[in-house]
Amino acid sequence: MMNNFPPGFVMIIGALLIPFLPHILRQIYMLVLILISAYTLTLGFGIHTKITLMDIEFILFQSDLLTLPFAIIFHVAAVLNVIYGAHVKHWNQHIAIMSYSGAAIAAVHAGDLFTLFVWWEATAITSVFLILAGKTNRSYGAAFRYLIVQIGSGMFLLAGAILLMSESGNAEFGNFDINTLYGQLIFIAFGIKAAFPLLNGWLQDSYPEASEIGTVALSVFTTKLAVFCFAKSFAGTEILILIGVIMTFFPMFFAIIENDLRRVLTYCLNSQLGFMIVAIGIGTELAINGAVAHAIVHILYKGLLFMGIGAVLYRTSTCKASELGGLFKFMPITAICTIIGAVSLSAFPLFSGFVTKTLILSALGKEGLAFAYFMLLFSSAGVLIYSGIRVPFFAFFANESNIGSKEAPLNMIIAMIVASILCILIGILPSYFYEILPYQIQYQPYDFSHVVGQMQLLTFAAFAFICIWHFKIYPPELNSTILNSDWIYRKMIPGVLLSILNLINDINKKIEQFFEFLFISIKKFFANTMIKNKVFDREVGQDTLIVVQLFIILLILIFVWKIYL
Amino acid sequence: MKYLIEKFGKINTLVLFFCIIFLILELIGHRYGETSIEDILFFPAIFGFFSCLIIFVIAIILRPLLMKDEDYYDE
């Protein structure tokens, strides 16, 4: 019976017991839940669980070549999250992380759009508590906006599912045509969650406001679930190449002037999602492998970077570049792990990012998409600067700040070391890693051209950064807010609506004043022309008098109209 | 060398050293790219260096447009 539960389901149900367990037992219990969930992956490929309700078939557990790599990395990330958050004694974030991870894993195994919708919304509802755990006024606001956007994306998905159901009689979660209305609705739903350009505001708004362990969990699941959905439903859709290219370079310019290091990492996350989206847009076997591989390693190295900066935040209560610096001597292990994450992100040979980025770039080259290829190369150089160098540099080196600190808690260090080892292992043993990808390919990332080309690109980009820093061209880090696409619904739309409301209010006042003036004029006119306050010798109020007089005028007008027209 | 380290710092000199090593490596072996334009000598190095400069220039131009007070949204 247990085998038939979809993976992740046991984590969601099991999470209900979390508040009743003592701290240490709770951590072990959560790891056991993840192991039980992972055990269901051994069932193999195919449809394992489906139920029929109201004549609609819900496929709860379907696994194939694409679901497996995502399921594996989601389980690994869930384990790392449990270890990383082990120092937090209160149960509230643990229950959120466990059910959020479970919902994302279950969503990957959904075989129809209605089941996907349920888990889609479940990821939104469970994860919002991680943003609320930031416990600041900003995090409360960000959580509210996050929930609206995420639920909104679910509404698009539901609308698409209903349309598909009405047209074809089933809502199978398969390949969709972008030229149909339901295809477009589903595309928008996925696009919101994948933080497409101009739909990305929620990402940079909410993730940096979450708790230090919350941001790590958030960085893993939501956006990668969207990537999985695109790979499953829109592989080979050409528009994705253009969108992906814009995604890769668009956030760079924001990241480079952003002061909050966790927000810098969310811009970087956005940019890396672009690489995956481009690869999905190409749609060849090599490219899909590249997208899936990049999603996996991205979860590891971006999680590692968020862990490192989260540890800094935990120890110093800030992660602003303008307030940090010189922490290497206090937090050397955290610094080294963060640097490993940054090096992996920058795609240095022997680290995980290299073996996946070269896959995507080769796929682009093979298809002859030169423009997209060079834009991604441009972004590869950029990511080294705005994230790969900047984040560890400003946190652990740069200027000596007055912040004293001590090394991160042991559990955080263990999680960071495990993630670091995985980043290196994937980098030095890519052939084993490629085996879990959806398609069997023969690809060798380590050849002379790839290594020398990539190292030239990175070392000279680093050299340019050094020159900019050395010759003091680099602008100072300032406490600031960088405008992003969330400005549209946080400032512009409220501003426009407020102006419209004020205008309506003004017009309303003018109309009121006009009618008041009209009424008073009529009143004066009749009061002066008829016998004062008397109708057929009866004393009446002025208002009644006016009504009677208007009635008489109306009768006269009807009389005239009937006779002469 | 000592002058360079003093003037430029240890890490920076190391990066410069690696830059030169990978330029020399290109002269020794045959590097090819996914597109023909990449066959130009030292193309990745030139591309990487100028990409970084372009990103900085655009970011510095955008800075006054995008940068607001820290409590911009709280007002």
Structural write-up:
The complex is a heterodimer of chains A (565) and B (75). Chain A is mainly alpha-helical. In chain A, 70% of the residues lie in helices and 4% in strands. In chain A, strands 1-2 form a two-stranded antiparallel ribbon. In chain A, strands 4-5 form a two-stranded antiparallel ribbon. Chain A is globular. Chain B has 75 residues and is mainly α. In chain B, 67% of the residues lie in helices and 3% in strands. Chain B has three helices and one strand. Chain B has helices spanning 2-8, 10-28, 43-66; one strand spanning 67-68. Chain B is flat, with a radius of gyration of 19 Å. The model of chain B has no long low-confidence stretch (mean pLDDT 85). The chains are: A mainly alpha (565), B mainly alpha (75). At the A-B interface, helix 6, helix 10, helix 14, helix 15 and helix 18 of A face helix 2, helix 3 and strand 1 of B.
Quick recap:
By secondary structure, chain A is mainly α.
The proportion of residues forming helix of chain A, as a percent range, comes to: 55-70%
Describe the biggest sheet of chain B?
none
- Rounded to the nearest angstrom, the distance between the terminal CA atoms of chain A is 88 Å
Q: Could you list the spans of chain A in which at least 5 consecutive residues all have pLDDT below 50?
A: none
Query: Total number of β-strand segments of chain A?
Result: 5
Helix-strand topology string of chain A: HHEEHHHHHHHHHHHHHHHHEHEEH
Shape of chain B: flat
Low-confidence stretches of chain B: none
Name the beta content range of chain B: under 5%
Q: Estimate the mean pLDDT confidence of chain A.
A: 90
**Span between N and C termini of chain B?**
54 Å
SS class of chain A: mainly alpha
Task: Please state the average pLDDT score of chain B.
Answer: 85
What structural class is derived from the secondary structure elements of chain B? mainly alpha
Neighbour order of strands in the largest sheet of chain A:
1-2
Report the major sheet of chain A.
2 strands, antiparallel
Helix count from the secondary structure assignment of chain B: 3
